[in-house]
């Protein structure tokens, strides 16, 4: 309350940030994105000639990697280049989904220090208004504005710093998962075309 009305948007940003961080930890779990035994099981189905449209469809909804693999497998008969192109196109869509809500974190990390700075400016305006009305003789008159200025700045930075850290962390995690997905998808393409065992 002593930080003024600007504490409301800063607190709202902190709640949204916490919600997004929790959701991204849940959604970007490597086991969910790239299941361990997915590529070997797809390869076994292919070797046993059991990879029909129904199995490819269920593979597509199983995980993001499954979706990427399914895009290549559905185009297996069209050759290696078409397979790779379809994997890349689907991969771009999957990357977009993996990056969901990261812009929200980036925006919160950018605006909360500015909201804190705005609170500082408003607090200092109150201080100068109090000086004009009462002079500098009574420090309690000045304390309210200075307190508001410092509280909003500190709160804005307290929200922004961890949000920025998690934003960077999740960007790195998405990049790492994308590289692993590309590697797994290329394994399947090369194995199916006899370039890899």
Rg, please?
26 Å
The main sheet comes to:
none
Strand share of the residues? under 5%
* N/C terminus separation: 66 Å
Shape: rod-shaped
Total count of domains: 1
What structural category characterises the helix and strand content? mainly alpha
Number of strands: 0
Q: What helical percentage do the residues reach?
A: over 70%
Rounded average pLDDT: 85
User: Quaternary state, please?
Assistant: single chain
Q: Show unreliable segments.
A: none
Give the count of helical stretches.
8
Describe what you observe in this structure.
There is one protein chain. The protein has helices at residues 7-27, 30-33, 38-47, 53-62, 64-74, 80-98, 102-134, 139-192. The protein is 82% helix and 0% strand. The model has no long low-confidence stretch (mean pLDDT 85). It has one domain (7-112, 159-192). Helix 1 runs parallel beside helix 8 and helix 6 runs antiparallel to helix 8 (139-192). The chain has 197 residues and is mainly alpha-helical.
Relevant terms:
197 residues, mainly alpha, 8 helices
What is the fold's blueprint, element by element?
Blueprint: H1 7-27, H2 30-33, H3 38-47, H4 53-62, H5 64-74, H6 80-98, H7 102-134, H8 139-192
Helix pairs in contact: 1-7, 1-8, 3-8, 4-5, 5-6, 5-8, 6-8, 7-8
Q: Short description, anyone?
A:
82% of the residues lie in helices and 0% in strands.
